[in-house]
């Protein structure tokens, strides 16, 4: 089971970036997927999830209205479109899937730095 994030980088305030998470070795289309981030010196913060069919989406208040989440089950890929980025969005972004209540899988993370 593997999750691989990509798409991070250095972005100016107000800018946009799209993250991708490619899944392998499990039935991606059957699972709710999550995006979670960790800012420097802080704990993990859940920011969004999307159900298996892509028709039930949730966001943390901190990103609502600025971020969108989507998935392409044919490509085993989930996306996070991040718009109007702020300094406080600087973090390592992880994708996550809970295969069972006890078994969660994480990607290696991708760094997003918002700075001018």
Briefly say what this structure is.
The chain has 116 residues and is an all-beta fold.
- Poorly predicted spans: none
User: Total strand count, please?
Assistant: 11
Oligomeric state = single chain
What number is the mean pLDDT?
A: 97
Overall morphology: globular
Question: What's the total helix number?
Answer: 0
Helix/strand order: EEEEEEEEEEE
The largest β sheet comes out as: 7 strands, mixed
User: Which percent range describes the beta-strand content?
Assistant: over 45%
CA-CA gap between termini: 37 Å
What share of residues is helical? under 10%
Structural class label: mainly beta
Cα radius of gyration in angstroms? 13 Å
Which SSEs are present, and which pair or pack?
Blueprint: E1 2-6, E2 9-11, E3 17-24, E4 33-38, E5 44-50, E6 57-59, E7 67-72, E8 77-82, E9 91-98, E10 104-106, E11 110-114
Q: Can you walk through the features of this model?
A:
The structure is a single chain. The chain has 116 residues and is mainly β. The chain has no helices and 11 strands. The strands form 2 sheets. Strands 2, 4, 5, 6, 9, 10 and 11 form a 7-stranded mixed beta sheet that branches. The termini are far apart.
Which descriptors apply to this entry?
116 residues, 4-stranded antiparallel β-sheet, 11 strands, 0% helix
């Amino acid at each position: 089971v593997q999750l691989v994030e990509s798409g991070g980088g250095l972005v100016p305030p107000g800018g946009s970036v799209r993250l991708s998470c490619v899944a392998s070795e499990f039935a991606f289309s059957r699972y709710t997927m999550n995006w979670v981030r960790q800012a420097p010196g802080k704990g993990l913060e859940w920011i969004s999830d999307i159900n298996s069919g892509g028709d039930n989406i949730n966001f943390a208040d901190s990103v609502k209205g600025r971020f969108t989440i989507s998935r392409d089950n044919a490509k085993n890929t989930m996306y996070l479109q991040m718009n109007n980025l702020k300094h406080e969005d600087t973090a390592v972004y992880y994708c996550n899937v809970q295969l069972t209540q006890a078994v969660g899988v994480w990607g290696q993370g991708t760094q997003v730095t918002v700075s001018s």
